[in-house]
Amino acid sequence: MPGSFFTHAIDRCVDYHGRVEFCLQCSHGLILISLQPAVETLAGAHRVLTACFVALPLAAVLVACTNDAPAPEEPPQETAAAVTEQVLEYVGSDACTACHAKQAAEWDESQHFLAMQPATEATVTGDFNDAAFSYAGVEHRMFVEEGGYFMRADGADGEPADFAITHTFGVDPLQQYLVSFDDGRRQALSVSWDVRPAAQGGQRWFHLYPDEELTHTDSLHWTGRNQNWNYMCADCHSTNFEKGYDASTQSYDSTWSEISVGCEACHGPGSAHVEEALSGAYSKPRLTASLEGQKAQIEICARCHSRRGILAEGFEPGTDFLEHYRLSLLDEGLYHADGQVLDEVYVYGSFLQSKMYQRGVRCTDCHNPHTATLEASDNATCTRCHQENPPPQFPTLAAKVYDSPEHHFHEADTDGAQCVNCHMPSKYYMVVDERHDHSFRIPRPDLTQTLGVPNACNACHTDKDAAWAAAEIAARTEAPPAPHYGEVLAAGRLRDPSAPDQLAALAADTTRPPIVRGTALSLLAGATTQSSATALLRAVRDDEALVRFGALAGMAAIEPAQAWQMARHLLSDPVRAVRLEAAAYFAPLLRQGLSEADRAPLTAALREYIEAQQLNADRPEALTNLGGVYVAVGEPASAETAYRQALVLDAGWVPALVNLADLYRGVGRDGEAAALLQESIARLPDAGDLRHAYGLTLVRQGREDAALAELAAASRLSPGNARYLYVHAVALNSSGRDADAVTVLEDGLERFPGDPELLLALTTFQRDRGNVAEALNYARQLAALRPGDPELARLVQELERAVR
Prior knowledge:
Layout: H1 2-17, H2 36-39, H3 101-108, E1 116-118, E2 131-135, E3 138-145, E4 148-154, E5 160-164, E6 167-169, E7 174-180, E8 186-188, E9 191-194, E10 204-207, H4 229-232, H5 234-237, E11 245-246, E12 251-252, H6 263-267, H7 271-279, H8 294-302, E13 308-310, H9 321-324, E14 325-327, H10 348-351, H11 355-358, H12 380-383, H13 405-408, H14 419-423, E15 426-429, E16 433-436, H15 445-451, H16 456-460, H17 466-476, H18 485-493, H19 499-508, H20 514-522, H21 530-539, H22 545-553, H23 560-567, H24 576-586, H25 596-614, H26 620-632, H27 636-649, H28 654-666, H29 670-683, H30 688-700, H31 704-717, H32 722-734, H33 738-751, H34 756-768, H35 772-785, H36 790-803
């Protein structure tokens, strides 16, 4: 009956997900999202997907409502000795040119210097001579009036208007244009100028989303939040940027030292350096940090050349990257299963996977740090090291002639003979911007055959298939292809029954890059095997921060109370990204009777988490995450405030709608929950999360047929969500449609092989229907996933006796 269905679904949810508060899209409807893809700085015009839900709620942000809502209690203040240290200040790039004329001249011509400029005749490259461009039924006109540059476009209300261009944004291969508003916002117009020569298809106006028809109602419209320079772009396109968002007025008072990537963006504030240099009494003028070491140098570049979220402003050279930023792991939708770039992830996540990185190569080994161009052309960039007599700084590099047909299998001076075409395949972003994968991988067409990932061979040989390419490579090499971590990550994404053990082994392999190991751990979220639990609890003590971070992301199936003794030290981790992930994970324990000594580090970490969230209170994702944290610590009124503020920013933000409805349910306001969901579905009929939540509301109301229709719609609209499929099947079974329930589950098991919930439901349903042999088959599959589970072992034994 409906009641039994609801109890069954909730019980399984608690058992399988561990903690209801942070459960992802589970049967009671709560969704707690991560801001990960949304807070990343995306070079102005990158598509931010709203379907960015992940199991652990962190990296997002908090919120205007912290001004009115209670925060976790203040931790005891520690007494520290006063430290007197000179305050370093930003002095501007002009202060550097007198002594560093050569470097300044190189920088003056670089894309860093030209990252953003006031719109003038000298800086604007686009055709504003009464030019026109049509997109989505809107006629755009670019013109000059009284010395100023203008674009006629559809505004936030959908009506055409003339907008003054205040700044150029970028210089090659495209240039965007910014419009400034009275509330401090700067918005990037999506109609952009193709700077490339006409012979390459350039010297034209184009739209960044040519295959879509974005209107003023879309968050990717140029007036929308995903084209907001203050949030999306400024941290990388200026120096010493502070966003200055005021949540009470929804306005910005942003500040910066330079409206470009200046000297101090990479070298740090230069006041002490200039003072000591001018004094004449110095041996080596002091900068914030040396750029000679690999880690320090690469992390300076990584702060902008990475897919990451901002945790704190004020990054300076020498500061750990993860103190200020939350790096995306090799997540599905961002990277292919083998780690190749898919979405706009920039360079850092790729480079961390490479042998180059593992052997100490720095960005400046290939790139001039001031021009940002390559130090050599064509294959010479690579053969400076990859040669018959390798340089002494890379003693493990094989002595070999690489720039030869014996190595690359192609005629000299052809495209196939270029190192980058095989080892750094490229992809276009923002329509015309070609970017190279920096993982420096060996072409693996065999993985194309097994995993469906791209390969460099077929990027050129488009008339051939992956089998041909794999055979060609096999004929020219002696050893078979080595096992690749992509095979394990792919199994984890597909929830293959063998995946937990494989992921655990990969996570423990210290020869693999930390970003790979961390990703493997994150894919253990929901896994309930002994090997997965052991791997996760071992990884929280790993020396690598990305491994500890990934372990926390994968601990969804472990109750925080069970992990407290093993992982509570992460609340005081030396890296902020790890501390904040730990704070979110352990937040529910704040209301479970911890001792004062145990409360202090958790409270301190939560306060730091809140400070990090306040930085991005201009995003609905942030406010939704804040609401989730308040739910976790038992403050429903504060959670409601946060969710409602998220909906002020975006009335159609589905995670806040679903979470608010669930919050109403939890405090006995079912009528308000139903009304909210009904109204939301009327506006957003294709939102599977809303349909699922409303279906459960109808279950509680005893409206069985209507509930089944909504749950079926949710499963259909969210085909990647195994949980919705499971709940729909349980509802069918509870309503007496057991055969239909089995059909739904069996179809689902083809999409989600090894899913524990689907296997458990099939075992139970088939047993109850008298199909004991079928039940035994599914029970054995489930027992193989949980070899140490005594209840499953007993169930298998009972079914085996019944079959005999």
